[in-house]
Amino acid sequence: MRPTLLTACLLAAAPLAAQNAPCGGDFAAFKAALAAEAPAHGISADTARSFLSGVRQDPNVLKADRSQGVFQMPFVDFSRRLISQSRIDKGRANARKYDAIFTEIESRYGVSRGVLLAFWAFETDYGAVQGDFNTVNALVTLAHDCRRPGLFRPQIFAAMKLYETGDIDPARTTGAWAGEIGMVQMLPEDILENGVDGDGDGHVSLKTSAADALMSGGKMLQSLGWRAGEPWLQEVTLPDTLDWSQTGLETEKPAADWAALGVQPREGTLPDLPASLLLPQGRKGPAFLAYPNYRVYFEWNQSFVYVTTAAYFATRLMGAPVFNAGNPDPALSDGQMKALQQKLATRGFDVGEIDGILGAKTRSAVRAEQARLGLPADGWPTAELLNAL
C-alpha cells in the first residue's frame, strides 16, 4: 500500500531539537530509555513497558522515508496526477452525504468543506487508503533513526496517552509510514490536542468515523491559524509587462495593488486581503493569488507543489474551473535540478538538501539569480539559467 502524500513530505522542516534528541544505538536499550522517560510525561512506567513490549523496528518505514521522489514533479503534472474526475465526483458526493457535519465545521471552525474534502481525498482517498504500517512500530523506528528524532520522540509519548484512553492499540493500530492515523492523517500529538468526538460515541476514532476525522481536521486547521470566511487561493491572469521579481511567497501586497499592476481574477472579484502572486511553473504557466489562509497549509504540510495542488483542488470542489495550464518552459530533469541546487549552494544560497525538489528556498534562489543575470525573475528554473550558471 502506498504511503500517503502527507507522510511523504511533512518532515521537510523538522525542529532544530531533532539534532540533539537521543537516538540510535541498540534498539532494545532505546526502548528501555523511552520507558524510563515516560513518567516525566505523566505516564506510568508500567504503561510504557506494556505499550513498548511488542514494538519492532520496521525497515520498510525507513525505506519509505527515503523514497519521496513524487514531489519532484512540476505542479501541472502533479495536480493532473492527483485530481481526477472520479475524485471530484466523490468529493461532491461526500459533501452532500456529510452536509450537516460540514455545516457544523464551517460554523464552529470557519473551515470550508472544500478544504477538508481536498485533504481527505489526497491523504486517504476519502478514507479508503489509510496505510497499513503498524503505527507504534513506525513512530519508534523513526525516533530511533537519527534523521529527525526530535519530531518523532514526542509522538511516542502522545501515543502512550492515547493508549491509556483506549484510542491506540500498539498491536493493531495502523496508518501511514510516518505514524499518522486516520482519514485525514493526524499524528498522535495532533490527535491529543485537536481530536474531536464528532459522532458522540465517547472516542476519537479517526480511522472509522468520518465525523470524528473531519471535525478533528477542522479544529486542527483553526488551531494552525485558519481565518474564517476568507479565501485561500484564486486563479488570476497576468499582463506581459509585470515585474516578475515581485512574484513568490516572499512578496505580499494588498490585492488592490496587484490589480493596479494588471493582475485580474479569472473569475469573480479580488478580496480586500493581502496576497502573494504564485507562479508554480513560471510566467508561462498557471498563476494564482495566495491569501493568508494559503500559508496555513504549510503548517500541515511542507511541500510547495503539494500545498498548491491541495489548495487548488479545494477551489475546484467549490466550483472553480480547471486552471489555465499555459505553455511553461520544460522542467529540469532530476540530475539538472540537483546540479542547479549545487551551483546555487556554491554561490551562498541556502537551498536546503540537494534533493532535486523545487522547494521554496530553491525558488527564492532561482529568482535572485535570474534577476542578477537579466533573465525574467519568475522563480522557474530553465536550462537557460542552468547553462548561464
UniProtKB/TrEMBL annotation:
Which keywords does this chain's UniProt record carry?
Signal
Signal sequence: where?
Answer: 1-20
Q: Which InterPro entries does the record cross-reference, listed alphabetically?
A: Lysozyme-like_dom_sf, MltB-like, MltB_2, Peptidoglycan-bd-like, PGBD-like_sf, PGBDSf, SLT_2
Gene Ontology MF term list? peptidoglycan lytic transglycosylase activity
One of the GO biological process terms: peptidoglycan catabolic process
Which top-level group of life is the source organism from? Bacteria
A Pfam family reported for this protein in Swiss-Prot or TrEMBL:
PG_binding_1
Please tell me whether the keyword Transmembrane helix is annotated for this protein.
no
SUPFAM superfamilies from the entry? Lysozyme-like (SSF53955), PGBD-like (SSF47090)
Pinpoint the Transglycosylase SLT domain residues.
27-314
Task: Provide the Peptidoglycan binding-like domain boundaries.
Answer: 335-389
Signal as a keyword of this entry, yes or no, is yes
Q: Which NCBIfam families match?
A: MltB_2 (TIGR02283)
Q: What is this protein called?
A: Lytic murein transglycosylase
Q: Specify the species.
A: Vannielia litorea
